[in-house]
Fold these 4 entries.
Entry 1:
Amino acid sequence: MVARAAERMVVRQIERRGVRDARVLAAMRKVERSAFLPDALREFAYEDTALPIEEGQTISQPYVVARMAETANLTSRDRVLEVGSGSGYAAAVLGEIAVRVHAIERHPALANLARNRLDALGYHNVNVLVGDGTLGWPKAAPFDAIVVSAGGPRVPDPLRQQLAIGGRLVMPVGDTSNRQRLVRIVRTSDEKFEQETLEDVMFLPLIGAEGWHDQNGRKVLSRRRRSETDQGNDAEADEQR
């Protein structure tokens, strides 16, 4: 039953939207999204939407998890940092592809839940840490890829500096705390980074020393910009972390 639901999810929600990386598609088929949700929401696990989880957070829309994993261009040799692990679902997907994943979550209770779920499912190559993800995890750096599962006003400099040469960083960036553009940064040398802007997304805010200061964000849009932003609501991706 779960396998059929996951297969439908991959075909209808992910492949049809252009995700082609075979490793990502295989991971999305294998990881049981239902195992990373509260019991009351498991029946909705394979629907095309973000869903609420513990601590007032959300589990990402399946397509967005797949898109970010594909954009990170992962290999089986990569060491990955995920910022904002939430329930652990995206970390499990990354762990199906990469050799090692360090996932940071700022809510201790949520990090403990994610850790227990991942351990129970056999993801022993995923390490869940509690901390300020905007500062990264220097002890484990450098990373071949960094995936940030929350939206910030800019790419935190500590995360840039923890990328290996040739490393890729994927993150939602925008001037409001809940509407962003997905960007990919590639570190090409000690001092040089190439940045590419991709599609519109909507994530919960990245809270921390190098992110938003609180749940309301720290920047205030002008009245004109608010109007322009509101008009675009229907065109944005339905994603919240």
Entry 2:
Amino acid sequence: MASAPLVATYSLAACDLDAGQWGVATQSKFLAVGSVVPWARAGAGAVATQAYANPTYGPDGLALLEQGLSAQEVVDRLTAADDGRDQRQLGVVDARGGSASFTGSACMDWAGGLTGDGWAAQGNILVSEDTVAALGQTFEATAGRPLAERLLEALAAAQAAGGDRRGQQSAALLVVEPGGGYAGFTDVLVDLRVDDHPTPIPELARLYGLHEELFGKTEEWLEVDEGLRAELVERLARLGYEGDLDDAFGRWSGSENLEERVDGVERIDPVVVDHLRRQSDGRGV
């Protein structure tokens, strides 16, 4: 269909059932690929829709997954109802880790997909099938790491293997988890997009690093003894936050968007302490 956007790209839809996470990572020579390709719903699954993309595959696919259909059943249902399916590409991972990938017969070469336990990789207008193979191989080789990191590693490996033969422009990372979003109010754990950039994958990785610093989960806490307390007071004053430590620390952490990593001043996240040290020393953040 000429009216559909040509999202020539590569993507990986995947899940980590132990962590209760589903997600999609994608890169393309296409403006704002994250606005079209990646879809995910916590507890249901993930969908990637591309080529002459049918954007309705996203919400419609998630609705079918939420009804309990398998990844293959979702692919079959969506493509059977679409007269333009020969120009479509679709990857789906379901709530149980089942996966399916579809490439229409009219997709531009090289086009194809691979699937494995908990992942579906697909791409079109690629340099070669090595790009899709790298997505799957890298995802499996990074087992045990956070899903977002595995998806980013897979994107980087796919680009190194050839990527989109037209070049690079945009990339996106979407990961969902029940209650995993900001302050636990949403299921969107990570939703990052690079809409237009000469090297979108490294830029996406940079944004993810910032995201983890600001919103990542605290793995350990530092007890605030007399020495650390004195250091905090001095460093905060250096930045213009003087007065009672509780108040000064709260005002500073709020201004730096670190409130998700702060729970009083009796104990502190090491990431927050490092952020304060770098900022007060003029080393940036």
Entry 3:
Amino acid sequence: MSTPDGALDRKFLGDAAWNYGAFAMMAATGVIFNFFIAAHFGTAALGIFNQIYAVYIVAAQLAVFGVHDSAQKYVAQHDGDAALRPVIARTAVGLAAVIGGAIALCVWAASGAIGALAASEPVGQGVALAAPGLFLFAVNKVLMGILNGERRMKAFALIQGARVLSILAFALLVALEGWPAHMLGAAFTVAEAVIAAPLLALVKPWRAGGAASGAARAWVRQHLDFGARALPNGFLAESYVRVDVLMLAVFVDDAAVGVYSFAAMFIEGLYQVPVVVRTVVNPMLVKLVAAADKPALARFARRVMAASLAIFVVTAGIVHVVFPYLAPYFDDGLVSGARAVLLPLTVGLGVYAAFIPLDFILMQAGMPGRQSLLMTVNIAINAGLNLLLIPSLGIMGAAMATAAAFGLSALTLNAAAWRWLGMRGGLAVGAGR
């Protein structure tokens, strides 16, 4: 947790360091992965893969149904109760398995229709291969939420790294075997299968707890209630930086989506810079908000925001310096076309970067419904601006719309903290009332 004056404790800094190490590996792997697809399979294949990825991420949030958020919050809240925590974990994992299995089956059945909507048969074929991974994703996401709630961030970081390395390894296998690009969709299923066993061994959700069966049923209801109210936030937060790709898939061809996706890959990576801090901060916010010490919360928030923004600016600067030098390695026009949309996206995200580590603060305060309302407003703004600008401006319209949406999201989060947490002036000022 934080120290009384709102400083960042040694464990926070250590956890952040481990997770930034994992993030660096994930980012490098992601870059290699996307570069490999573009270079080996071509720009159209990159567009196909990113459309499969966008569908998978959105469906994955339905599969986990917000149960991971419930598990993370209540494990952190009851960190001193060794008998209750296994009950929280066991009921959350069981519930995720049931819901995740049902969603996986539905997505598999709808894969052909998804391909038709995207006007791309390979997209539908790839979604069908990714669908079984949704069941495992739901279970794994809850197990990761439990690790997060227990602040076991070293294990959390290692599992994150194993997931992306598994995806890259499968992509290399696809290339070696000469399989078509849509086979890349199976990478998600393979990766979730790889990390499932170590996650189960780390969390051990089967451990006996002190609660009777009636109490266990009560926790199932609690997870369902919290998850149902948190679902829109999880669903929309994970798809927030992919709204533009999803909407471009309807209005432009695979090659244009591929050009935009090349820039979006870097933006998603930059977005993860403050998200790493958010992951470490979430269980700490549970305690800080519950203590109702607004001055301490405000000091903590400002320190986190300043650190996040500084790290983002440095990382974004490196990306923009390196980006033009990638041109010789890819198809003519890919890097130059992507560079045109990368700048506005980075500027917009820069405004939001300071706030991202705290943008789940309402969830940690036990307000999943209001958290979901906030994210619904943000994504409605994002989708509305993209719908307004993409038909006439294409991928540049998507960049302008998404950049504006990032900036507005900072304002809505600040207003929510002011209104619902009593922090006069919001997170940026943070005076309690």
Entry 4:
Amino acid sequence: MLCPKCGFEQVPAAACGRCGVLFDRVRDRPPKRPSPVRAPSPKARAQVPWDLVLGGLALLAFGWFWTRTVPNPAPPKPASNPPRLAKGAPRSVPGAGVSAFPEAPAVPSGAPAPTPPPMPPVTARCPIAGAVEPSGYRQVPPYWLTGASGYEDAVRQRQASAAPLVVYFFTDWCRYCKEIDRELFASAEVDRYMSRAVFRVRVNPEAGEAERRLADQFNVTGFPSFFVLPASSEEPLRCSLYAEGKELKPASPRQLQDRIERENLRIATALIREAYELRRAGDPAGAIRLLDRAVAAAPQEADGWLQRAIGREGQDALDQALDDYAMVAVLRKDGTAHDRAVHALLQARRYDDAVACATEWMQREPQDIKPIRQRARAHQQRGDVARAREDAERCCTLGDEEACALARAD
């Protein structure tokens, strides 16, 4: 039989062997009737939840209005100069969790490293190459000016031409003056030099009152008297027309030319020294003005060109400074111009020009280590590692231990 409470099947008995219920009590209880289930009324079945429907429609309308009236935010623009990542830093976007840049494929162990493409050779020309040595020619009259009026003309004209002025005082009765005229001033060599480089004036103090006043102005005490007014100077300097020694003999044409140019150079040197002090005092513009006068007065003096080039370089006028360095390279053969030019070109990141100037410097001084080292540096800055290493190996063969370490580096 089955227990009416737990459903345990068992032999007929008075009580359940599992739950212990008495079968007689269970049989005497009236069975529970299920509660009646009311069927929904027709009105209830037809009722629709309009509040939910209206709410949904309102949300749809609001969403459509939002998408039409509120603009979408523009995506952020990439930075024009993104910061460089430190060496070894992970290349990832913060918060993204993925790499921002594609990683290079790993090189298998033992495989040769990829060879970078070769750099093209330098075809630039050194900016300080091809200069011509100053000829010493100055814009002067090709003849003697005479008298006090001729002196005034010479003073007026030399303001536009940086040339020395010579003044020769003589008389008709002075036999020494006739000897100087015949053996010195009549020389073709003296005439050729003066006609292209010097303002020259002949003054006879006995010719008139103005000439006598001019002689007094120059403090003439005897004849012949010869004075030099160097370029960029108004101070007359007495100059001898005779050769050195005990004999009273006229100087040679070359001696006369050297004396005039020596006085000219003395004034130019003083201007260069004064310009140097001005530049150190913080007045580069004033220094360059003095150096302009010095270069015009003594164009064959390399120091004037060099100091002006340094001053112009300090004022960021690199092209003008290179023009002056070109003249220094012509007048001096010690590599000073190329050294400073290469350094300035590297500072200006004109690496091809720096390589070209270092190459020309090497051709002028093939046994000097410095131009080779400078060219190696220019190649390295240019990105040409192979040629930089070649120059380092060449320096190594000349005894540069630092270059040897660079040449042997992987």
